[in-house]
Write the structure tokens for this entry.
Amino acid sequence: MAHSPSVPDRPDLDLDPEMPEGEQLDVLKEHYVDLVRINDQLEERVDDATDRRETLYERVDELERENSTLKTASLYIATVEEFTDDGVVIKQHGSNQEVLTELEPSLSEDLEAGDRVAVNDSFGVETPLDVETDARAQAMAIEESPDVSYSDIGGIEDQIREVREAVEDPLSDPEQFAEVGIEPPGGVLLHGPPGTGKTMLAKAVANETDATFIKMAGSELVQKFIGEGARLVRDLFELAREHEPAILFIDEIDAIAATRTESKTSGDAEVQRTMMQLLSEMDGFDERGEVRIIAATNRFDMLDRAILRPGRFDRLIEVPEPNEDGRARILEIHTAEMNIANSVDFDSLAEDTAGFSGAELASLCTEAGMFAIRDERTEVLMEDFEEALEKVATESENDQRYYVY
Ligand code: ATP
């Protein structure tokens, strides 16, 4: 701890009354200069002390905050399962422990089965959790009007047509299905290698039909929201109904709908519950409603066939890697806004990029642009594409792929 510095000595005035007046005046002047100097020193000390006091106040505030945080016990998250005469049954997330606990009368009016609550060490319900702070806001991405259109997607014209028939028609003209007396197709499943435009396709339909685009990734659901998968699936469908017309896009559906395994770990049971919820939501869904469901996977081989039954994902559309014409078209799309030299030959680039996905072609164009910038040019030349091609091809080789096609 720093101690206060000692106060400077006060200057003495030693004035001899016998001294001639002129000399007395000199002594007084000297004394005055001393007083001013000491005064300056004292003012400096006062400033230092004020600064130090501020710093100490801040530290005290910090310690008080730390102290109160340490004193408050953390709360656990649980879901209300059912109300009984003896109290409420809640299930703690993570441990999945079910507990019968009492509820304060003021809380029981606001709560219903399925709500999330914060509980203390003795499982007393402390507070209901606000829907807005609920996990669903983090797990689902909503776009009112995605800015992708069909003309931004190259090389998969047949797939675009099929998706339009299966998704756009029931949304834009549901009556025709009723008149003909058939059910519109259930969900659409897009399957194919990564980066081939599956997400773009779903967004483009949403854009074209003025529908809200709601996306949820299956993998996030099982990795981040353990114990909440089934509830989030229910919320997802509810959210879609709130935003009708809506396109509900479930990416990486294989994460929640993989073939059942023999293993009986709790993680598998959790994935099972999530999938059962998905199936029951789809079965109970009014197909003529204004919500259409599109799912995507890179692992079609792993899917549980139960999700492919009629009324569920009964429209399977394969989105393959683009062929040569498709690649040329995708290159054109991604260079439309770029300053490209006449020497750039898209046909020959399309020939040299066999096996490239749409995403890889998009990054090829960006890389070519980067080579031009590095060379301090504003125009992108064929050499830039050639150099970019080498770079992207090497990166793709190093990129281990886990999908099977
Ligand atoms: P994943 O299976 O990895 O989720 P995906 O098939 O959903 O991939 P997208 O997210 O639609 O792929 O595509 C990623 C990016 O790649 C797009 O933003 C776009 O830039 C480019 N791309 C992919 N396919 C095409 C295509 N057919 N036409 C134009 N661009 C494409």
The radius of gyration is 35 Å. Residues 400-405 have pLDDT under 50 and may be disordered.
